[in-house]
Structure formats: C-alpha cells, structure tokens
Specification:
Blueprint: E1 6-7, H1 20-23, H2 27-41, E2 50-51, E3 57-58, E4 62-66, E5 75-79, E6 84-88, E7 92-94, E8 97-99, H3 109-122, E9 126-129, E10 133-135, H4 139-150
Helix pairs in contact: 3-4
C-alpha cells in the first residue's frame, strides 16, 4: 500500500525565517521556543504528494477546512456523515472547557476566531482536539462562548 503525504499548503513561507513570530514570547518561554524551533529546523524535508485546498474533499469524504490562527497553514478535518471535526490544534479542551490553543502559541488570534466561526457553521456534533480529548455536548453554545471571549 502506497503512503501519501498531504500538506496544508505547499506555498507557505518558511515559518522559521519569520523571526518576529517568536521574538514577542515572554522571556520565561523564549529560550524554550527558540530551542524548539531549532529542533524543528533539523527535521529533514520530504516530498509532498498532494497539497490540500480549503473546503476540498479528500480521501473517504473528508472535508479539508483551513483553520489558521494557531499556525498559518493549520487545517482541521471534517467528516460530514458523522458531523465529526478533527480540530487538531485549532482549539483545546482545558479543565473541561473549550479554548483556543494556548494564546502564547497562537500566532494570529483574529484568524483563530475566524476559524472558530467557520467551524461553527459546519455544525459539528463531535469535536476531537489534539489536546484535551473529545467534546460532544453543547458544542454550538461552547463555540459561541469561545468566539465571544476573543472577539
């Protein structure tokens, strides 16, 4: 079985050259952030088989949803049949509450809020967050509260 590598956007600018993104971090985490970026720079690049496009369907009827904010090229994946959204890092569940990714590591809060509004329009019944687990109750209300919190 051939493995296929997908990438959110093949034409993204090199994040690591955008020094201004990490220079504003609080002093307490700046050293950690710089070390983390240096580790990421050492990852060997690979060839991308297919670039993903916002609101395009890919394998198994999965809808690609461009959800920038945490990072510029962040995507979430939506399965319309089950109304399940794999949110990735576009939001997290912390202490049972929905939140955007750690604001210190969310590169563009305004874009993050627009992404939440886009997700809300999909009317998901289940949200899977990379950090915090699964949300299945009162999703619409919790998304509305979160959007209002950062608007």
């Amino acid at each position: 079985m051939k493995k296929i590598l997908f990438q959110a956007s093949p034409n993204q600018k090199d994040l690591f050259k955008q020094k201004h993104l990490w220079t504003a971090y609080p002093k307490s985490i700046k050293k950690w952030a710089i070390n983390f970026i240096e580790k990421l720079k050492r990852i060997e690049p690979v060839n991308v088989d297919k670039g993903l496009v916002d609101m395009e369907y890919c394998e198994h009827g999965i809808l690609v949803v461009h959800t920038p904010g945490h990072t510029k090229g962040h995507i979430s994946l939506f399965h319309p049949k089950t109304k399940t959204l794999v949110a990735g890092d576009s939001m997290v569940i912390e202490n049972g509450k929905l939140n955007i990714a750690n604001p210190s590591f969310t590169l563009d809060i305004k874009s993050a809020v627009k992404s939440l509004e886009k997700i809300k329009k999909l009317n998901p019944c289940k949200i899977i967050c990379y950090h915090g687990g699964i949300l299945e109750e009162d999703i619409n209300e919790k998304l509305t509260e979160l959007i209002d919190k950062f608007k």
